[in-house]
């Protein structure tokens, strides 16, 4: 009989030559279980998706309730679908007044695409400013925001008019000018190995955008929905973007993204031309039901977000080791720096062998990614760190 692994490798499109290829049977809380019953602590939450843990009962209940009512009905924006309306209303209550209108899509990269189109439509401009080593998705437009030719060279020509600036370098803000439709950046930069704004940098970006009439887009696809210790990361930096991007944890484990702006701006998609942005499955009622349940839990059970800082500090304390060069974090998104990619590779695979799932970053292969479900317990943190440090010790001694 042909194995699932064989079928996976031969018939499911791959993104690299050596996928982890764990055959997952079920999941619960911070744990994944393979078909042999082996348990794995998931320290990356499906790359920031499963913030409330896998198989959260309230989210599953909301999904089941919606599947018993209706699934897809018509292309997005034509019918009044309760899960969409309720989720948009809750976002309006949680966000600043200027972010009061939501366009639902399927993913983070689609949120990026929609936001770029909206910025061009509203401003009438074509220039885009992004950060070097930024990641906002890999569809053609989103990929154009990436500075790294390793990932983009095979797909050129890309979107014209994109300038790349260094994050936290104030002098580069002069590249934002009267031709700039938008500046797009992550509130907390993830794929460089976790980098935060310093010296009020985000406020300076906001000020420069206002001076030249450019829109500020903040990407919270990875760092929104409680990950950094507040519902939205920008709340900690005293700025409000013109457009906010959400996805990953926003869907409660289901495929869901969104870009949020003012109703006045979003109305630009309704005329000249009408149908200015379309999606068939964006804001799918089942995904919105899951996202609504997840956001309600975060808003109701305040301790989940309030405990993020304490849990992050516990990780930092337990992961002290001579081989750890630096630990960078904003809440429960953390980069643990080692000497080399080879060292990190060995640690990750030793962890995997011993029941711990972690990863590196797209633009920082010398760091290990830690971004567990926000619901991880102190006991589970201790267990995870014990496995990780054992892997580090064995790598140091070449075991």
Structure description:
The chain is built from 14 helices and 15 strands. By secondary structure, it is α/β, with parallel strands linked by helices. It has two domains: 146 residues, Aspartate Aminotransferase, domain 1 (Alpha-Beta Complex), CATH 3.90.1150.10; 242 residues, Type I PLP-dependent aspartate aminotransferase-like (Major domain) (Aspartate Aminotransferase, domain 2, 3-Layer(aba) Sandwich), CATH 3.40.640.10. It has a seven-stranded mixed β-sheet with strand order 4-10-9-8-7-5-6, sandwiched between helices. A hairpin with a 2-residue loop joins strand 1 and strand 2. It is globular and about 65 Å long. The model has no long low-confidence stretch (mean pLDDT 96).
Helical residues, percent = 25-40%
How do the strands line up in the largest sheet?
4-10-9-8-7-5-6
- End-to-end span in angstroms? 36 Å
Which CATH first-tier class of the largest domain would you pick? Alpha Beta
Mean pLDDT: 96
So, CATH architecture of the largest domain? 3-Layer(aba) Sandwich
Q: What's the CATH topology label of the largest domain?
A: Aspartate Aminotransferase, domain 2
SSE run: HEEEHHHEHEHHEEHEEEHHHHEEHEEEH
If helices are DSSP runs of H or I spanning 4 or more residues, what is the number of helices?
A: 14
> Structural class of the helix and strand makeup?
alpha/beta
Query: How would you name the CATH homologous superfamily of the largest domain?
Result: Type I PLP-dependent aspartate aminotransferase-like (Major domain)
Largest sheet: 7 strands, mixed
